[in-house]
Structure prediction request, 74 residues.
Amino acid sequence: MDLDSLYRGFAEEAFRVLRNGGYVAFSHPTYVDSLDWFLNAGFELVINGLQYVHGGLTRLIYVFRKPNQCRAIS
Prediction:
């Protein structure tokens, strides 16, 4: 499975199993652009930022919220 499919599948499954109003935090390498995957799944972005790990290594961090009134994923 490629990385794109893995992260996209995670976003969709997290949306499916999370309660309305629930949160998910997600961290990944900066070369991966996952924001649209979570937004397209139905999540709302709460906050994002960078986590310095060491040297030139940083991670993107997102916190998403599943809306209280959410749409079904098609």
Notes: The mean pLDDT is 88. Residues 13 and 65 are 14 Å apart (CA to CA). The two ends are 22 Å apart (CA to CA). The chain has two helices and three strands.
